[in-house]
Amino acid sequence: MSTQPAKGQLQQLRHDEQQAGPAVARLLRAAAPAAERVLG
């Protein structure tokens, strides 16, 4: 089994993370007040 496909997969995953980063951050900021109400 070669390590090359896994490496490509990892790079793709990292790329996806960078693309999703801002959207996830926005989602977390939007959810934070509701979570604080529920938890607090």
TrEMBL record:
Residues 1-12 have a biased composition (Polar residues). Residues 1-21 are annotated as: Disordered. It comes from the Bacteria. This is Uncharacterized protein. It comes from Amycolatopsis carbonis.
